[in-house]
Design goal:
CATH class of the largest domain: Mainly Beta
Number of helices: 2
CATH superfamily of the largest domain: ZPR1, A/B domain
CATH topology of the largest domain: Jelly Rolls
Helix content: 10-25%
CATH architecture of the largest domain: Sandwich
Number of domains: 2
Structural class: alpha+beta
Distance between the termini: 29 Å
Order of helices and strands: EEEEEEEEEHHEEE
Bound molecules: zinc ion
Radius of gyration: 18 Å
Strand content: 35-45%
């Protein structure tokens, strides 16, 4: 092994064009981490000093398997299961009929099941502020939030699916079901 995970190199490029505001005020950075189970991963991030735009993504350095990962979360322990999600990954919670599409490119991150659920909660809380919601939609949101709380308390089980046809996402658990997909180039 020539690669040292103790001393990773960080590459930073300043004054790049921002994909949102177009000004040459963004900073790109890239570094590598060594995940004990998934292997070496490159982490990319961008931050614009002009408009505040921020994003991050990741990519396996050893080619991953394009797949749909499906897991049943049925205890508090399951909340600690590690999740690696790239910007091309679609997340679905069929139990609550929630789906986050990634066709526009979303954020890539490494977290655990609890972290994924917290992000969902944030997005749903944001939705809740929308004045245009009708009574039925408000009730639905309330039920989803209650359901997420119950899952986090270990009182309810739910299914979480991660679908990534670039092969850069994973749920790291023995109880995960993996369905291979055709690779997207
Ligand atoms: Zn910008």
């Amino acid at each position: 092994m020539s690669q040292s995970s103790d001393n990773p190199d960080i590459f930073i490029v300043e004054k790049q064009q921002c994909p949102v505001c177009g000004k040459h005020e963004s900073t790109f950075s890239e570094y590598e981490i060594e995940d004990p189970l998934a292997g070496p991963i490159a982490i990319f991030s961008i931050k614009c000093n002009a408009c505040g735009y921020k994003n991050s993504d990741l990519e396996f350095l050893e080619e991953g398997t394009p797949a749909e990962y499906s897991i049943e979360i049925s205890s508090k322990e399951d909340l600690n299961i590690r999740v690696i999600k790239s910007g091309s990954c679609e997340i679905k919670i069929p139990t609550f009929r929630i789906s986050v599409d990634s066709s526009m490119g979303s954020e890539g991150f490494i977290t655990n099941i609890e972290g994924v659920l917290n992000r969902f909660r944030q997005q749903i809380l944001f939705l809740k502020e929308d004045d245009d919601l009708d009574k039925t939609q408000r009730k639905k949101i309330k039920n989803i939030l209650k359901g997420l709380d119950e899952v986090c308390a270990g009182e309810k089980s739910m299914v979480l699916k991660l679908k990534d046809d670039t092969g850069n996402s994973m749920i790291l658990s023995d109880k995960v079901e993996v369905k291979p997909l055709k690779k997207r180039k």
